[in-house]
Amino acid sequence: MTGLNTLSPKKGSTHRKKRVGTGRGSGHGETSTRGKNGQTCRSGNNRKESKEGGQMPLFRRIPKSGFSNVAFAQTTEWVNLSTIDKRFAANSEVTPDALLKKGIVSCACRVKILGNGDIAHPVKIQAHGFSKSAKEKIEKAGGTVTVIETKN
User: What are phi and psi of 84, to 5 degrees?
Assistant: First the structure.
């Protein structure tokens, strides 16, 4: 019977570490696997991969087309009701700035409240969006919901 302490890799599946720069007897001696002469065999070589020695680089040869939404994308932070219930007292005002100060969201750009969990006490919540279940639960607990309009 074999135990976990007797396990080992399959024969031939692992290799010795390549020890470069350890002389001729290492099997990687003299040039330390860098080849003979030239820029790449010298110390301090940090030649960029994009340089192709006079040939037009690949990223310039390929045509660019299409649209990227990166510059216009809006990040949205989601907050569950269970988090608000734990971190805010009854009748307190919950705004994106208050969520940011308590460390619940990383930025106060756009905040949407989700209905995961329950809320036991009334709170006044201002956010950019609410799920249907979150809105119902907040109003059922006696709280108020205010949607912040975004400027687009």
Answer: -65, -40
Q: Report the C-alpha gap between 110 and 43 in whole angstroms.
A: 49
Pair 111, 128: CB distance under 8 Å: yes
pTM of the predicted model as reported, rounded to 2 decimal places: 0.57
Q: Report the CATH number that the domain containing residue 126 is assigned in CATH.
A: 3.100.10.10
Q: How many domains does the chain have?
A: 1
- Whether 121 maps to a domain, the answer reads yes
- The angle at the Cα of 93, spanning 140 to 142, to the nearest 5 degrees, equals 15
pLDDT tens figures, 54-70: 899 888 899 989 998 98
Quick check: 44 and 57 in contact, CB under 8 A?
Answer: no
